[in-house]
Specification:
By secondary structure, the chain is an alpha/beta fold. Helix content is 41%, strand content 15%. It has a five-stranded mixed beta sheet with strand order 2-1-3-4-5, with helices on one face. The longest helix is centred in the N-terminal third of the chain and has 17 residues, at 30-46.
């Protein structure tokens, strides 16, 4: 809730072990925030994959540049120029993760908490959050569809906590 206190309205946040993994804020649709923050969470987790950790950069490549290259490799849509520059930055060739390797690694992501600054208006937020290792949700409640959200949490075996606290800025 502390992270969301300072964001645009319609914000959600994914957290794990005291770390913020992804924030989605200011979108017109809460589920768009959920999907955006979920993609950031996936990228955070994929950066911990042994294949990504094994990238060997040449001496002199700055830390932030290493992180940026890891993210670009994970995203998988390198331009020809980026491919050339990444190859120059590495001392050994990079290998992109296969779809199967990605899927197997993503299945290991768990213990993620999902927090919303406002009531979840539809169950789709829960369905999308579940894809990103969410096992706990905290949200204010009070939506006319809160029962559907609660049912989705039961289906996905997600613990739901209703805070009763809205952090909207409007």
């Amino acid at each position: 809730m502390r992270c969301l206190r300072y964001t645009q309205s319609n914000s959600v946040c994914y957290l794990r072990n005291g770390m913020t993994l992804g924030i989605g804020a200011g979108q017109q649709s809460r589920v768009d925030c959920t999907r955006l923050a979920g993609a950031k969470t996936d990228t955070w987790w994929l950066r911990r994959h042994p294949g990504v950790r094994a990238l060997r950069f040449r001496p002199g490549i700055r830390r932030q540049d290493r992180i940026n290259w890891q993210i670009r490799l994970i995203e998988g849509d390198l331009t020809p120029d980026e491919t050339r520059r990444l190859t120059e930055a590495l001392s050994t060739p990079a290998r992109e993760l296969t779809a199967d390797e990605r899927a197997q690694w993503m299945q290991r992501l768990d213990q993620v908490t999902f927090v919303s600054d406002g009531a979840l208006p539809f169950r789709d937020n829960v369905d999308h959050a579940h894809r990103h290792g969410v096992q706990y949700i905290a949200e204010p409640g009070g939506s006319i569809r809160s029962g559907e959200v609660e049912e989705a949490c039961r289906e996905h075996r997600i613990t739901l906590a209703r805070t009763g606290l809205r952090l909207f800025h409007h």
